[in-house]
Amino acid sequence: MIKNLRAVVVRELQRFFRNPVYLISTVGMMTLIYVFFLTFLNEGTPQNLPVGVVDNDHSTISRRLVREINTTPYAEIKGHYNSFAEARDAMQRGEIYSFFVIPDNFYADILAFQQPKISFYMNQAYLLGGSLTMKELTTMANLAPAAVQRELLRARGYNDNTIMGLIQPIVIDSHLVGNPYMNYPAYLLTTVFPGILGLIILLVTTYSIGSELKHRTSRQWLKAGGKSYFVSLAGKLFPYTLLYIILDLVGIILMFNLFKFPMAGNLGFYMVGSILFIITMQCIGVFFAGVMPVISTSISLSVLYGILAITMSGFTFPLEYMPPAIRGLAVLFPLRSFYLFTVDTTLLGLSVAQTAKYLPMIAVFMLLPLLVSKRLHKALIYQNYPTV
Questions:
Q1: Tell me, what DSSP letter sits at residue 103?
Q2: Rounded CA gap, 257 and 251, in Å?
Q3: CA–CA separation, 184 vs 279, rounded Å?
Q4: Which is nearest to 43 in space by CA: 140, 153, 194, 181?
Q5: Beta-carbon count within 10 A of 370 CB
Q6: Cβ atoms within 10 A of the Cβ of 93, count?
Q7: Pairwise CA distance, residues 40 & 38, whole Å
Q8: Which helix (DSSP H) or strand (DSSP E) does residue 192 occupy?
Q9: If 0-12 CB within 10 Å is exposed, 13-18 middle and 19+ buried, where does residue 188 land?
Q10: How far, in Å, CA of 337 to CA of 305, rounded?
Q11: pLDDT per residue as tens digits for the range 187-217
Q12: Element (H, E) at 295
């Protein structure tokens, strides 16, 4: 059995290096994903997003408001425009994500308690950029009246302690649990990387099996494995399993060592969960190849399933706020359980005993290949499916 297993592994390695698709879709794709996300979000969240301003008042308070917005971490004033039309055109061209308009007589209306209005306009086609700049503009606009009120109270002779008590009678003492630096990649990428790797695993697994049927080489594959279906399948998947584990370890080193993502729990146990997730996704790929042993159909199923898995995991939109009928479908995707396992381990720092409950929910999908073993075995022998 060991001799046959070695023969299948050697045969699969030869196929891997002869076909550049394997190398590009695994090492090449994950390298691109790591470089893109870790450089794009290398500061935790996008910084210095371009914002425009239309200052129709040109007073000391309006200029001060512009300077204060320019000091915020997310927004940077990239353009001063003479009219609303100019700023709108700049936003439509993609030069800025948002802009705000300071009306005429802004300072005079403040002193006369007339409640002047500052108008914000943001491009929500860029959801993240528009939302972050909107947050900064709203925060600074809310602070502007407080600054004016402080100056008025100082003019009346109040000291700073009394002024702060009047302006802000209640002080919020917030404690950020798990992610104290509000590092967006620390929450996002710990699930994005496994999710994309899982999608790649599905595609490569179904492609490697489907290509045997497409090119009518499945009988040679079985012959190399001593005509044992399980030895042949294990030998085919083994080199890829090692490759996926290496790619996953590279991501773990980049996240938790180089970029210092928080790891409040047990790193070794997190790696165990990652390896289990990799093997599970391979098993799901074998299941799709067995359900429909036609390469185009099985790859289509893998793409659909992988994209739905990322959506249903709940890290981009809370699963609790989805419709109940949709919410129940999350159990069909191991990425959901791995996401919960990741959050509890890396951010919340729960113990091994508390996070181990997610591993059986991931491992249960490893039984799927057994459901299609006879069907896939017959397909490999008789090659009685279309080769499209």
A1: P
A2: 10
A3: 28
A4: 181
A5: 12
A6: 8
A7: 6
A8: helix 184-214
A9: middle
A10: 15
A11: 788 989 999 999 999 999 999 999 999 999 9
A12: helix 295-312
Instruction: Give residue-wise pLDDT tens across range 305-363.
Output: 999 998 899 887 888 888 888 888 999 999 999 999 999 999 888 999 999 999 999 99
Residues 366-374: contacts with CB under 8 Å, at least 24 apart? 366/279, 366/280, 366/283, 367/283, 368/283, 368/284, 368/286, 368/287, 369/233, 369/283, 369/286, 369/287, 369/290, 371/287, 371/290, 372/286, 372/287, 372/289, 372/290, 372/291, 373/229, 373/230, 373/290
Q: Hey, which residues does 99 pair with through a beta bridge?
A: 52, 121
Beta-strand relationship, 98-102 and 119-122: antiparallel
Angle subtended by helix axes 229-253 and 2-18, to nearest 10: 60
Q: Which of 361, 196, 339 is nearest to 280 (CA)?
A: 361
Q: How many beta carbons lie within 10 A of that of residue 189, not counting itself?
A: 23
- Structure tokens, 204: 């490569």
343's tokens: 């959050």
